[in-house]
Write a structure and sequence with these properties.
Layout (H helix, E strand, L loop, with lengths): L1 E5 L2 E8 L10 E4 L4 E5 L4 H19 L3 H4 L2 H23 L1
Parallel strand pairs: 2-4
Antiparallel strand pairs: 1-2, 3-4
Helix pairs in contact: 1-3
Length: 95
């Protein structure tokens, strides 16, 4: 089982069937259950980027910036930038 720590709260990461009913909706965070659900039928990098996106939603909510968390364009852009930075770092370490 994988977990993400969001402001000290352990969120279980669950890969599940795609029941999100929206093509661009690849995952979701459930704050009450402390779970992140992602579509299991995606490439590994897409799963990782989706987890980063959902963690960012969680971070913004937990620091009291619900307004920013509701801005999907902002969360997507920043989530992709953060994921890309860490992914590039990993690639550089492997060279």
């Amino acid at each position: 089982m994988r977990y993400a720590n969001i402001c000290g709260i352990k969120h279980r990461i669950i890969e599940c069937e795609d029941k999100f009913n929206v093509d661009s909706h690849l995952g979701m965070i459930d704050y009450k259950a402390a779970e992140i659900r992602i579509n299991k039928d995606m490439a590994q990098q897409v799963k990782e980027a989706t987890i980063c996106h959902e963690v960012l939603h969680g971070l913004l909510v937990h620091i009291g910036r619900d307004d920013m968390s509701e801005d999907e364009q902002f969360v997507t852009a920043l989530g992709n930038a953060i994921y890309g930075a860490f992914h590039l770092r990993e690639e550089m370490r492997n060279d």
